[in-house]
Description:
Elements: H1 2-16, E1 25-30, E2 34-36, E3 41-48, E4 61-68, E5 74-82, E6 88-93, E7 99-107, E8 110-120, E9 181-188, E10 193-194, E11 201-207, E12 217-223, E13 233-235, E14 241-246, E15 252-262, E16 265-267, E17 272-278, E18 283-289, E19 292-294, E20 299-306, E21 319-327, E22 330-332, E23 336-339, E24 345-352, E25 356-363, E26 370-377, H2 380-400, H3 407-425, H4 433-436, H5 439-452, H6 455-468
Parallel strand pairs: 2-8, 9-16, 10-17, 19-26
Antiparallel strand pairs: 1-3, 3-6, 4-5, 4-7, 7-8, 9-11, 11-14, 12-13, 12-15, 15-17, 18-20, 20-24, 21-23, 21-25, 22-24, 25-26
Helix pairs in contact: 2-3, 2-5, 3-5
Amino acid sequence: MRLLRCFALSAILSQSAPGGSLPVKLNVATQAHSIQLGESLQVEVGLLSGTNQPAAAPKPLVISLQARLPSGKVDQLQAVEIPVNRSSKQVTVTPPESGLVYLWAKNAQLLPGGVYIRVRAAPDLRQAPPAPVKPIPPSLNVPIAAAPRAPEVSPAPSPAPPPVAAPPSTAALPPPPPPVAQIALRFSPDRKFLADGKDAVTIEAFLLSDEAASSDLRLNVFDSSGAMQPMPLTIPKGKSSGRSSLTYPQPGTVTVEFFGSSPPAQCQGDRKLSVQFIPPVTRLSLTASPPDITLMDTAELFATLTDEQGRSIATDTARDVAFEIGSGLGQISATVVQIAAGQSQTHTTFRPERSGVVSVSASTANLITASTPIEVGAPVSLLLWSALGGLVGGLISYWNDRRKSRRRVLIGLVTGFILYWVCLFLGLASAGRGVVLNPLSAFAISTLGGWLQTEVFTTLWLMIKPAATP
């Protein structure tokens, strides 16, 4: 049995943490950040660990890839399945609308990932080109005969016109000012970030015109974290977007605000971005206490929120944890239990129904499901003590019997076990369950049942009848 449990434990661990690193978040990467409407775009959807390293999928993971359009509509692009032991997959998508489109990847067990794409409107081809000039046919290409010249007449002299003032010189006028660039400020992924100094938020500036920047556009951006790099946020010459990133080591809100630029530009939409950083909860662990029980025992299931190093981390908001039996038979007292805000752990009770290895799992939003095995064995020790007590009780009854019927010993074996079972599973003993499970209690209760012989049934009936009678 011990070997079977070790095998089950190794199998569960191999499924939950290949290579020792669990995926924590999704990453979306693209070959370009600006395309024309109707063009296809190569997108890589990847799995990252808490340290931003590629992490292999512990099981096949289906990722929902969506597009949030400028109109506010969310368009389902496709489902991306990352096979087991793979960390990424490439797909091709075609954004259905022009403007700033947010490509968004999500899975219930991972932190979502995303990136903004500037989709330029398609050129207007509705204006017809000018009609071509038709050539003159060779048959009509005949020189026209010169008309006879009229006799020359000398014109009469005309008076001189009055002097006209010369127009002012245009060289002295200043050139018209260049148009002011229009930009938009965004951050991605669009979610809350882990306050571990590693989970990076990307601050992006997009040029909203179809032309690329004619010179470097440097943005004067305030960053309350003081960690944004590179600074200043710049849209390089010849590009239509620029980006910087920042991390934060403690929970809180980081503000990024646009104050101006060189050359001047106007910000369309929000000039201030608020990025929230939360406690760095990256894993859910599940333990059973005790991990080895019998059919007469129960086990406490503890679900704990931890960081990458396995340290308990309190959650900032309440989280629901769902418990489920994957294999084996048993009952869980509460299948959904909440971890309150400011807490890191919750628990429930497992009661077995059959011997063997039972696999129990726990899950919560944006974290990989955790599993643990519980070994359920037959209560051999208690059965032996119960049988010994029943035989001793039967012998006592045999010694007190004048007829010395040996059947009393066998009857004591049966009635002793019945009395112990009723006290254990029907709760008829005044002592707690832990006391009843003690081997000495098993011996004492079964001895009493063996001595009472068939009077056990009468005694039990008198105890049960008042509760059963209306």
